[in-house]
Write a structure and sequence with these properties.
The chain is mainly beta. The chain is built from no helices and eleven strands. It has strands at residues 3-7, 10-12, 18-25, 33-39, 46-51, 58-60, 68-73, 78-83, 92-99, 105-107, 111-115. The strands form two sheets. Strands 2, 4, 5, 6, 9, 10 and 11 form a seven-stranded mixed beta sheet that branches. Strand 9 and strand 10 (105-107) form a beta hairpin. The chain is globular, with a radius of gyration of 13 Å.
Amino acid sequence: QEHIEESGGGLVQPGGSLRLSCVTSAILFSRSTMSWYRQVPGKERKLVASIDSDVGGTSYADSVKGRFTIFRDDSKDTVFLQMSNLLPEDTAVYYCHAAEPEGLEFWGRGTQVTVSS
């Protein structure tokens, strides 16, 4: 049974940092494109960052460039999102997404990130 689980969310002050982790099992992790999305109530889920499975190429939403870093550890089937210089507008539920090369996709249940003083 495929499983994706996020962790690392919490409450942080503006300017602070958090590292999100996404542990997977029973998916073709090393061959999957892994992504982080975020969603606030009443709005659509938006892509934050992605990392591919070949050379580890990354892409970011303009709103997080220079502040967030996505990286992966294929030996642990885990992807991370290092978030720095957090802003109140980064407050959201963050979701991990896996896209296998054959087209199957999987989502985690999300982890809440709240940036507030």
